[in-house]
Write a structure and sequence with these properties.
- This protein is globular.
- It is of the alpha+beta class and 166 residues long.
- It is built from 4 helices and 8 strands.
- A hairpin with a 7-residue loop joins strand 3 and strand 4.
- It has one domain: START domain (Alpha-D-Glucose-1,6-Bisphosphate, Chain A, domain 4).
- Strands 1-2-8-7-6-5-4-3 form an 8-stranded antiparallel β-sheet.
- Belongs to the AHA1 family.
- This is SRPBCC family protein.
- Pfam families: AHSA1.
Amino acid sequence: MTRIPTGRLFRTPAGSDLVITRTFRALAEDVWASVTEPERTARWFGPWEGEAGPGRTVRVRMVFEEQAPWLDVRVDACDPPHRLALSTADEAGVWRLELVLAEVDGTTELRLVHHLDTEEGIGEVGPGWEFYLDMLVAARDGTPQPVFDDYYPSMKAHFEGLRDPA
């Protein structure tokens, strides 16, 4: 299956924001539950454990990655059902992420924002987020899960093309 990348890149005073969106015919509270409740995140990203809240760290198991590693995720901000800011730190570096939900007339747009310190590796990161957001769509719709090979390397050129040539 051919997937079309949707990611866009916005320059900010602090770096760049990689933004990928999906739209759901659902209330924001329902989409929020899909991205915050452990039994629902398990369907498209992985389950998590711990006591969540701003300033706290939970453990997320990335069950769709090789060897299903656990990852510490700090909750930087939580404003249900509109905004969740998270950060992680591991050998891949520090990742700062936001999920922003906006509902209009029963339709909710979910915007994933990856705040990038550098645009290095965007050719790998972007397809990964496209994959995970489509996993979320499939989990919500009850449709077959996408296959990562449909995203990478075919989307790599799109995301690398977003980079600042300087």
